[in-house]
Amino acid sequence: MHNGDLLILKGKEIASLLLGRESELLQIVKAAYEAHSKGHSSLPHSLFLGFPENPRNRIIALPAYLGAGSGVAGIKWVSSFPANLEKGQDRASAVVILNSVETGRPRAILEGSIISAKRTAASAALAATYLQRDKTDCAGIIGCGLINFEIVRALLVACPEIEKLYVFDISPGNARQFRDKCQEVSDRIEVIVAGDVNTVMNKCKLISLATTAAKPHIMDISSALPGSTILHISLRDLAPEIILSCNNIVDDIDHVCRAETSIHLTEQLVRHRDFIRGTLADVTTGSIVARENLNQTVIFSPFGLGILDLALSKFVLERALKKRLGTTIKSFLPDHWVERGGENAGS
Q1: SS3 of residue 157 by DSSP
Q2: What is the DSSP string of 249-310?
Q3: Which residues span the domain enclosing 56?
Q4: Tens digits of per-residue pLDDT, 306-319?
Q5: Residue 123: inside a domain, yes or no?
Q6: In this structure, is residue 126 part of a structural domain?
Q7: pTM beyond 0.85, yes or no
Q8: Are 174 and 88 within 8 A, CB to CB?
């Protein structure tokens, strides 16, 4: 690519570049978390664009910079429109813009929903490997959409001992479709459609929650097995009383205490953050243990950090350039103003 060119990477190209790369993505996410924990990043709070006529819809801007050898900057612009599912469309759509850290000039525009789902899944699977130290052959899935599907893919790589899935969705049809898709991914796993949340809690020590819930709808987890790990990916499913009763690990304390997440609602209730044990990077680096009591339940609540999107996007961009994938828009950026003609003079 020449100075002023812009590379466009489409969804199908990105999917092909990330296919079967789950192990590498886990390591990229781990490195990004640990770099962030050491201060090698710039991560403003996400900006939420809301729609007063339909408060379930939103578009979110996640600007970020990640250093520590990564040298990547940019922004993810991601929308969440839950009613899209009724139209046969994905709930989320996104773009990622990568900028040069030397000049600030945009280098690439990438379809972002695949990257977003993959980084979320890698984050969840990384948490599972560090938080669920009592290995289990069974995982529970609550919410049968794209995010949990990608989490299943990642878990089967990160936790190869998993042989059985219990899945639940408020739409039985979605649950059955999810079961069939999971069995396409691996014929070695058994996938069972559960009739309710409690069944999933009672059968599995490792549980992933990825729903479209806007406010807490799970008020009791007394059916959960001792020593369980709940990957609270959708952030708003669990009542504050549940949060207070468990060990809580997050990705970033300041970020997750926003936007009426279950963690944020708990902070508002008790007016402190002492119920948060620490971050996943604290656990991966050995600064803290996930739980002191092996029978306690650990909840991982990741707000979703833009540094992860950028780290994966850089990985995708580097692979795309090696494979000569993507569409290059030549001279997308204008020439230096001194070199331009005077066509606008006097206007």
Answers
A1: helix
A2: EES-HHHHSSTT-HHHHHHHHHSS-TTEEEEHHHHHTTSS-S-SSTTS-EEEE----HHHHH
A3: 6-115+306-339
A4: 999 999 999 999 99
A5: no
A6: no
A7: yes
A8: no
